[in-house]
Amino acid sequence: MRRAILLSALLLGSAAALGAQETPGEALPVQDFTLENGLRLLILPKTGAPTVSFVVQYPIGSVNERPGVTGIAHLLEHLFFKGTTSIGARDYGREAPLLEEMDLLNDTVLMVREAESPDSLRIGALNRRIHSLEKRASELVVSNEFDAILTENGARSLNAMTTTESTTYFVELPSNRAELWFILESDRMRNPVFREFYTERDVVAEERRLRLETNPSGLLYEALLAEAFKVHPYGRPVVGSMEDIQGLSRRDVQDYFRRFYGPNNAVVSIVGDVDPGQILRWARRYLGSIPAGPPAPRVMVQEPEQTGERRVEIVLDAEPMLQVGWRVPSALHEDAPTLAMLASLLTGGRSSRLYHRLVLQDRTATNVVSGTAPGNRYPGLFHIDAIPRSPHTPMEVEEAIYEELQRLKNEPPGEMELQRVRNQLEASNVRRLSSNLGLALQLAESTSLYGDWESTFAFTRSMVAVTPADVQTVVRRYFRPDHRTVAVLRKSADGEGGSP
User: Fold this and answer.
1) What confidence score (pLDDT) does residue 494 get?
2) What is the pLDDT of residue 498?
3) What is the C-alpha radius of gyration for the chain, rounded to an integer number of angstroms?
4) Residue 4 pLDDT greater than 60, yes or no
5) How far apart are CA 455 and CA 449, in angstroms?
6) CA distance linking residue 60 with residue 168, whole number of Å
7) Which class would CATH give 310-491?
8) Which residue has the higher pLDDT, 460 or 490?
9) Does the domain at residues 4-287 carry the CATH identifier 3.40.190.10?
10) I want to staple 55 with a disulfide (CB 3.0 to 4.6 A). Which of 6, 170, 278, 478 is the partner?
11) 380-388, strands of its sheet edge to edge
12) With 50 as the cut, is the pLDDT of residue 20 above it?
């Protein structure tokens, strides 16, 4: 299946003008409803192509995990496509006992692993038995039937993504198939079956190997977050640790689903050629009677104040890289629009400050990017990532970055620089408004993060209103040596380090 992890999925600063005299938030005829079970429903009718985009976002991600069960939000995202007691099932009555038997065997595997001297031969035999049962169970399953039903009815862009703070499912359908979406989504909200669990757990483990363990930039980013966040769950990767992934059980996923996937934690946004009245009737009919669950908890742990520079180095048989992060407030803070503007000033295009100096002028780097990560709800990092151009070193690039930041501390950017970014915002926002799926994602993200769909429009207006003095102020306030964390990937010499 098509899946994606986005270590940084920001939809901030989206949507500008629908017309020359219109304010975008006021111009969009979004209809906002909350069903009795707490499900939030946003409907935006748009004439044109007879299509409609559906997005469901749960404000649940890796920050809601605890040590020992990391990676469960991402694994659940995969398994949520595996069907229900009716979809994907040839004979669920015969399949269910096999699933239970596999779970009991997995319990034994986990118990044997925790022994003082684990019996690897016994673990291997138990795992072979589990996979044998899963093969038998597969004969009772219509694999990928959920996907197939949607595809046969004209679906496009069927996918999902897990970030630090949310899990989002989305699809585009012909407008005359809108009711089908409600039928299918209602069934998997009520009756999901996390079948093919052990095979999919192996898939996720392999995904971790590809995205992190054999990917130099992924390894470096994981090291940067682990060094910057000693207490807060931002320090853990979305995909989870390998040990935790291999230790997850199907019951863990079932419990996680019951705790966090209640309709009261869901935001559903629907954009396209639809009748809002009919959409609301279907929502009430198919989704309105699903029982509410516990509210999504807020992470209460706070990262202690950083009082000195932190550095971490990885030695690999790979080209050097540099990642520098400074502690900054969340996307809910009043300084967030200015920080977003700063990222564009530094690396937003060929004429941006760092790109022009490092890539075009000095030719000390092949690329440089910046932004805030790893999430939006809690204080995070403003990071600048660069790839040095041989024979230049990460240290040379690092010093040049600090020099450019010092320039901003000494002298604010020019008004023309800010206008360039404003022009980029306007162009990207107009493009985003032309996409039903892009709008649906934005409406869901804004409601999930801020509590209302209009806030990302307000965020854009705040970015446009940023002044040169504002930029200088945030650089002076946050870009201090004692607030930064530096991660360097250094190419190994012969016999030193290893391959990623």
Assistant:
1) 56
2) 57
3) 24
4) no
5) 9
6) 9
7) alpha beta
8) 490
9) no
10) 170
11) 310-316, 484-491, 321-328, 380-388, 365-373
12) no
